[in-house]
Design goal:
This protein has 66 residues and is mostly helical. The chain has one domain (3-59). It is built from 3 helices and no strands. It is elongated. The N and C termini lie far apart (49 Å). The mean pLDDT is 97.
């Protein structure tokens, strides 16, 4: 049995209360990983082109207010 299968089985055995706690923890964990990836991409310049395009659109009036 793979680690993933073991994890799936363990999650399926959680009580509703424990599952809610796990879900909350996992959502925060996943968000933290995403933030770290975005930070690495930003530091590496991978987002520069997108940022420059957005700023250009804003300067040239191609944006709508939300």
């Amino acid at each position: 049995m793979s680690d993933l299968q073991k994890l799936e089985n363990a999650v399926q055995r959680l009580s509703p209360e424990a599952f809610a706690e796990f879900r909350s923890w996992f959502a925060q964990y996943d968000a933290d990983l995403w933030d770290q990836q975005i930070e690495r991409d930003a530091k590496a310049g991978r987002l520069d082109k997108l940022a420059n395009e957005a700023l250009s659109d804003l300067r040239e009036g191609r944006c709508t207010k939300l």
